[in-house]
């Protein structure tokens, strides 16, 4: 089932999500299945549960946009173990549609987490995958990519979004 993606301005996007404590449940599997469907329908490379209004530490990532099964990753209760290097690249967010800006991120990242059965996993990412992992983990902390921009750029985008909200074009 495709769920509604909540947009910037909804408080659920800016509060830390809670940990998953029950694995292997129909609710968790259903949430993850819906998140894949919602992400692909929106043509995103990643989606975090708060973006569908669920404040849980769950994210899905597919940097191949559905082209390569081996590029699909589920992160549950992820923790960053290590970050190295630096990359700058354009970033966008399904909750902030229409805005893309260069964001500085680590180039290599190692993350520990759980799969949907509760098994501990470790995942290494570099370049685009590292960027996607860090962007989604930020979401689970209630942080949006706007936080990584200069205050000036952030204010310009916020003002544009406010106008869209007033015009009823941001829902
Ligand atoms: Zn995002």
Explain what you see.
The chain is of the alpha+beta class and 171 residues long. The chain has one domain: Peptide deformylase (Peptide Deformylase), CATH 3.90.45. 26% of the residues lie in helices and 26% in strands. The protein is built from three helices and seven strands, in the order αβββββββαα. The protein has helices at 26-41, 128-140, 151-166; strands spanning 46-48, 58-62, 72-84, 87-91, 101-105, 108-114, 120-126. The chain has a five-stranded antiparallel sheet with strand order 1-2-3-6-7, sandwiched between helices. The protein has a two-stranded antiparallel ribbon with strand order 4-5. 30% of the residues are buried. Zinc ion binds next to α2.
Briefly say what this structure is.
By secondary structure, this protein is α+β, with helices and mostly antiparallel strands.
Give the overall pLDDT as a whole number. Answer: 97
Record field, number of beta strands: 7
Span between termini: 19 Å
Supply the CATH class. Alpha Beta
List strands and helices in order, with pairings.
Elements (H helix, E strand, L loop, with lengths): L25 H16 L4 E3 L9 E5 L9 E13 L2 E5 L9 E5 L2 E7 L5 E7 L1 H13 L10 H16 L5
Antiparallel strand pairs: 1-2, 2-3, 3-6, 4-5, 6-7
